Amino acid sequence: MTQFTETLSQVGGPEWLQAKRQESLALFESLDVPTEAVEAWKYTRVDVDFGALRPHPRRDAVQDVSALPASVQKRLSSTDVGAFLVFDGPDVVYRTELPQDLADKGVIFTDLRTAVEQHAGLVQQYLYSVVPAEVPDDTTIAAPGTTPSKSPDPSEGKFSALAAALWTNGAFVYVPRGVEVELPLGSFRVMSESGTYTATRTLAVVEDNASAVFIDEQDSEPLENAYAIGAVELMVKSGARLRYVSIQNWGKGVTHIQRQRGDVDRDGKLNSLVVTMGGTLSRTEMQSYVRGSGAESEMLALYFADEDQHFDHYTLQHHAAPNAYSDLLYKGVGADQSVGVFSGMIKVDLGAQKTDAYQKHRTLMLSSEARNFSVPQLEINANDVRCSHGSTTGPVGEEEMFYLRSRGISKETAEKMLVTAFLEDVLGRVPLKSVTDYIEGIIAEKVGAV
Q1: Least confident among 51-55, 277-281, 296-300, 373-377
Q2: Is the pLDDT at 142 greater than 70, yes or no?
Q3: Which structural domain, as residue segments, surrounds residue 311?
Q4: Residue 147's pLDDT band (boundaries 50, 70, 90)?
Q5: Does 255 lie in the same domain as 266?
Q6: For 442, left (φ over 0), alpha (ψ -120 to 50), or beta?
Q7: Do 314 and 427 fall within a single domain?
Q8: Residues 353, 447: one domain?
């Protein structure tokens, strides 16, 4: 692990941050790589030679958007954002500034490395508070007066510990009390070097009765033996509203491992959407900690796996307070020889009476060779709740396909229409047209209808 110790000495930062990094690296080195013997990793194996990993090289900033990768230029020209950051590996290579009226109200939107220098007090207060660095699995955390959930196998936290130790940059969003940010803020991450890894961290804090929309995208050309690991911390205070969108469209050859966790306080509302389209292997842990009474968490996701892609989604709806609501809807498509995995848990703590929680996972199979594994679960420790879960998997309807083909529509176009219709009840919940148009374009490419 010598190279990680050397990397730690290079990333810098204040003393408190270096201490957190050292704790996380020690935890990483003490844990085994999760195998199929760990229930949460039963259907997914990550083969990685940690000794051969090297960090993504540094990149210089560019002055003109035309110097950015073509995929990023296309996204920037087709999406409406109030301000954005573009990362190539660990560095911000292009940025637009936050509108002055928002800056005057105390809104902060910058890269996390800069935030550590310029807003040290805020970052130290919130960093690692939602996805901790010092424990292997944050599901053991419970609100005061409630019973914590049983901790799973600690090896589940190995990659999270590595990301907590080695992150080099990411986005920082801070919205003060009562401020509404109407236009979305955006972060666009690319990788451009094979045989490397990037470790990133996103931190978004929305104070009491404030609101914001944040779009977090990842994209690259095909790479060989590349790794993207990271964590996303979303802090939604009392009465606040945050809409978070993550779109993962890495090129083939990238392994993507990320833990995302939202902490929602009293009467707060978190709407999250995770889109998984790229990479060769993707493992996304999407967790929502419903801390306060009256809080709401909407967890949406869609994915389309084709060729030999392997997509694993591991979710948690953790209710620690009474009279709160969560709704999870995951829809996926499997084609060719791909593998899809969904493992979802609703956990209700002892004091979380009147919990209202739903979990639904549906998969559309375009190939008889594709595989899908679905494991919905409940752990209820209160006696006055309404919780339900369900999962369905099935092929494209023969009648629907025949109807479209009989009207002169090609097989590829017909599949695109059916897949888009299948995913519509997720896309229909996202009031960001540029985002849904982009997703529909990726779907068209995957079914060959462009």
Answers
A1: 51-55
A2: no
A3: 2-395
A4: very low
A5: yes
A6: alpha
A7: no
A8: no
Per residue in 412-425, pLDDT tens?
888 888 988 899 89
Q: Which residues, at least 6 apart from 302, have a Cβ–Cβ distance to it below 8 Å?
A: 273, 275, 276, 330, 331, 332, 423, 426, 427, 439
Residues 223 and 94 in one domain: yes
The helix/strand/coil state of 198 is: strand
Mean pLDDT for all residues in the chain: 90
CB 43 within 8 A of CB 36: yes
Same structural domain, 110 and 47: yes
Overall domain count for the chain: 2
Q: Model confidence over 293-331: pLDDT tens digits?
A: 999 999 999 999 999 999 999 999 999 999 999 999 999
Which backbone phi and psi does 349 adopt, to 5 degrees?
-75, 170
Q: Three-state SS for 51?
A: helix
Which of 107-111, 130-134, 230-234, 244-248 comes out lowest in average pLDDT? 130-134
Nearest in space to 256 (alpha carbons), one of 232, 278, 223, 275: 278
User: Do 144 and 160 fall within a single domain?
Assistant: yes
CA dihedral 136, 138, 140, 146 (to 10 degrees): 160
Q: What is the pTM of this model?
A: 0.93
Picking from 257, 246, 264, the residue whose alpha carbon sits closest to that of residue 284 is: 257
Do residues 76 and 48 share a domain?
yes
Give every CB contact of residue 117 below 8 A, 6+ residues apart in sequence: none
Shared domain for 284 and 417, answered yes or no, is no
Out of 353, 379, 395, a domain closes at 395
